[in-house]
Amino acid sequence: MNLQEKLKQANLDKDHPVILICKDGEDVIHVWEDYQEEVLASTGIATTLAELITDPSFKGNEVLEEMRNHDLLELYPRDNSGFSDYVADVITENFFEFDWIDRHTEQYDYKRGFLTLEARVNTTVGQVLAADQHTIAGWKVNTVTDLGHMTIEG
To answer: In this predicted model, what pLDDT tens digit does every residue of 110-135 receive, in sequence order?
Structure first.
């Protein structure tokens, strides 16, 4: 059963707010200066986030709006090709300036550890149900209901 089928079974209103969450990470040597950029590139989480926020089902999301408000999308050639790739590059280039991807390093000792990267997108049940199934693959849904916090994994 995929994420959308599980979300339908939760019987939530289409306007009910949810948070889509994607997490990834890997072992690192945290004394090296560029370990965060290396994990960002090797996990592909910037591309995963870009594919989600550029999907027409998630039109008007906060991440894309913040990019527009800071004129980060102005250089995109308006030929409708490769927009998702362009947005992934914007995410990568602005990794430290914006909080689109949270990062946390668990230090095992003075040089080794594990870096976790986490992307979160605020949306609604209706938008998740309208999205292409492949776009939301690897994401989980987190929401609050009358019964408490609920997490649905695909």
So the answer is: 999 999 999 999 999 999 999 999 99
Q: What residue has token string 């149900």? A: 129
A 10 A CB-CB count for 112 gives 13
For residue 150, which phi and psi values (nearest 5 degrees)?
Answer: -130, 135
User: Residue 107 — very low, low, confident or very high, per pLDDT cuts 50/70/90?
Assistant: very high
Closest CA to 139 of 115, 118, 113, 114: 118
Q: Taking the CA of residue 43 as centre, how many other CA atoms within 13 Å lie in the half-sphere pointing to its CB? A: 27
135 DSSP 8-state letter? T
Please, how many CA atoms are within 13 Å of residue 15, restricted to the half-sphere of its CB?
0
Please, what sign has the CA dihedral across residues 145, 147, 153, 154? negative
| Contact call for residues 52 and 18 (beta carbons, < 8 A) | no
User: 0.90 cut: is pTM over it?
Assistant: yes
Structure tokens at 24: 């990834």
- Residue 91 CA to residue 125 CA, distance in Å, equals 25
Structure tokens at 66: 């913040």
